[in-house]
Design a protein that fits this description.
By secondary structure, this protein is an alpha/beta fold. Helices cover 32% and strands 23% of the residues.
């Protein structure tokens, strides 16, 4: 079976399962989620009942954020995020399932009245291709159907221009990407592009909060070919280390599991599936130490511990208790705003000591020192 055939099968399994999930609640679709301390009373019952997930990535939403929800489903996470971002923030929900999009959009005016304005925009698209506007593509094909080589060439030109000039989500515009039990539904051949797209649309310093299912070992092909297991968020699960590596390989840093379910959600044929929430940060545009940087552009940081030394995803090694000069933008990434949930903030301190002699400080080291 070719890669295209496999991808088409996966899309068909997922579309069928979630279309049914939009029509009638599927109790076995992903594991139950508890939003501790979150007020759900303002949400329509239908949205809550037909929401499927495995974690709570919304605890990372900040006021004023532009949030993108990958696989927005019933819209529950989008409306909850819209309440948290406030009037200065906004939320984008991307989904490919028409039934789910219809359900989410059904209550948009009602939610806007409650929130005091329209803060949520639902868009049709594939989460592994956040450049192609599927609604615009369908409109083009309705007017200019492909019937010969010339019309096919015209379609390709349209797609190229649309992705370039009016992508579904513009590059470097999102503060936080969230997702709840959706990445495991993407075909394996499309996952590299998925990671690259998440990286592309985030602003420098943007954050990731992904709740998903992972498995302790790589799942065999026999399980991957089971429609129920794949569409049920199981056999498509990332192996637990592979999910971390997938984010770090495209340039993310501070990649970590913030939440890890101690008990597996399910154990099938000896494979343990559990819910996790992964965090990561897109590095700022300027990182580390650059040659010729002026003293005024440098600040001093220190790694607090508890480990003897640490190496970041960017290859820098910091020794516990050692003062290190870094670019100001890098210090902001390391120290953050005292955020102990995302990034390195709990482990680094910014030192503002005018009496410190620069000769006592060392430049940040590469991975090999």
């Amino acid at each position: 079976m070719s890669k295209c055939d496999v991808d088409d099968l996966v899309k068909e399994w997922v579309t069928d399962r979630y279309t049914k999930g939009a029509e009638e609640r599927q109790a076995a679709l992903c594991c139950p989620v508890t939003y501790q301390g979150t007020d759900l009373s303002f949400l329509p019952d239908e949205i809550v009942e037909k929401d499927y997930g495995c974690g709570d990535p919304l605890r990372y939403v900040r006021e004023g954020d532009t949030v993108l929800d990958l696989g927005s489903g019933s819209g529950k996470a989008c409306y909850l995020a819209a309440k948290k971002v406030g009037p200065s923030g906004s939320v984008i929900g991307v989904d490919m399932n028409d039934s789910m999009l219809a359900l989410a959009r059904k209550y948009q005016n009602e939610m806007a009245d409650y929130l005091g304005g329209h803060r949520v925009d639902f868009r049709k698209g594939h989460i592994e291709d956040l450049q192609t506007d599927v609604t615009a593509l369908h409109a083009y094909l309705a007017e200019y159907p492909v019937c010969d080589a010339a019309s096919f060439d015209a379609l390709q030109r349209f797609q190229y221009e649309q992705r370039l000039t009016s992508p579904l989500v513009v590059s470097d515009t999102v503060d936080l990407v969230v997702s709840n039990c959706v990445l495991n539904l993407v075909s394996e051949s499309a996952r590299q592009n998925l990671m690259e797209e998440i990286y592309r649309i985030l602003k420098p310093g943007g954050r990731v909060a992904i709740s998903d299912i992972v498995v302790d070992r790589h799942v065999p092909d026999s399980m991957k070919q089971d429609p129920e297991l794949w569409s049920g968020c199981l056999s498509g699960a990332f192996q637990e280390q592979a999910l971390l590596d997938a984010f770090s390989s495209v340039g993310f840093e501070a990649v970590a599991y913030d939440q890890w379910s101690e008990q597996p959600w399910q154990v099938i044929e000896g494979y343990s599936f559990r819910s996790v929430t992964l965090n990561a940060i897109k590095p700022s545009s300027s990182q580390g130490v650059s040659e010729g940087a002026s003293e005024a552009g440098m600040v001093t940081v220190m790694y607090r511990g508890p480990y003897q030394c640490v190496t970041t995803d960017l290859g820098e090694t910091f020794i516990r208790g050692e003062r290190v000069d870094v670019l100001r933008s890098r210090a902001q990434s390391l120290v953050g705003c005292g955020d102990e949930v995302l990034g390195y903030g709990a482990h680094f301190v910014l030192i503002d000591d005018a009496a410190t002699c620069s000769s006592n400080r060392k430049p940040a080291k590469g991975c090999c020192g």
